[in-house]
Design goal:
mainly alpha; Rna Polymerase Sigma Factor, Chain: A; 82% helix
Length: 175
């Protein structure tokens, strides 16, 4: 049975690369996966991190003169798992902040909208009778011709009333 360092050295030889990689993968993948899974508690993420570790090994990130391969693999696994967990907690925190901000702006919008509708309702009650009648029919979905027929007035008068209504509302809302 070849040592980890011998297998690692074989990764550099094209003719032995696949066999050496397969042996190292078979030797460590299941224990590394379980180790990573304890950090992430997510099978898909644990598999992704496991594959990233072996890609690093293939990319010659391991220095065989500094220590043994098993220690290196588990150190990389721990670091990747911790980094992922840290990143995930920041993303969750950001999502909560965004949700709270959206909720706050929705609340502010609702408050403003409620106040505007309340003010509009108050203004409607104080409109002159002719403008209030015209406005109430418009709110019911009638067009200018239908309003003119309902009030027995010319269409031009309906348009004139709406012009006065808009001017009145602009003045009341300081627009």
């Amino acid at each position: 049975m070849l040592s980890d360092n011998d297998l690692y050295l074989q990764l550099k030889i094209d003719s032995k690369k696949e066999s050496a990689f397969r042996t190292l993968y078979d030797r460590y993948s299941s224990s590394l996966f379980r180790f990573i899974y304890r950090f992430t508690l997510n099978q898909q993420i644990a598999e992704e991190l496991l594959h990233d570790i072996f890609i690093q090994l293939l990319d010659d990130k391991y220095n065989h003169s500094e220590g043994n391969l098993q220690s290196w693999l588990f150190t990389v696994a721990k670091n990747k798992s911790l980094n992922h967990t840290k990143k995930a907690s920041f993303e969750t925190s950001d999502d909560l902040t965004i949700a709270k901000t959206a909720s706050d702006s929705d609340l502010e919008y609702s408050f403003i909208n409620h106040n505007l509708l309340k003010n509009l309702s108050l203004l409607e009650s104080r409109l002159p009778t002719d403008l209030r009648q015209t406005w109430n029919l418009k709110k019911q979905g009638l067009d200018y011709l239908q309003i003119s027929q309902a009030l027995s007035i010319p269409v031009g008068t309906v348009k004139s009333r709406f012009s006065r209504l808009v001017d009145h509302l602009k003045k009341e809302f300081n627009l």
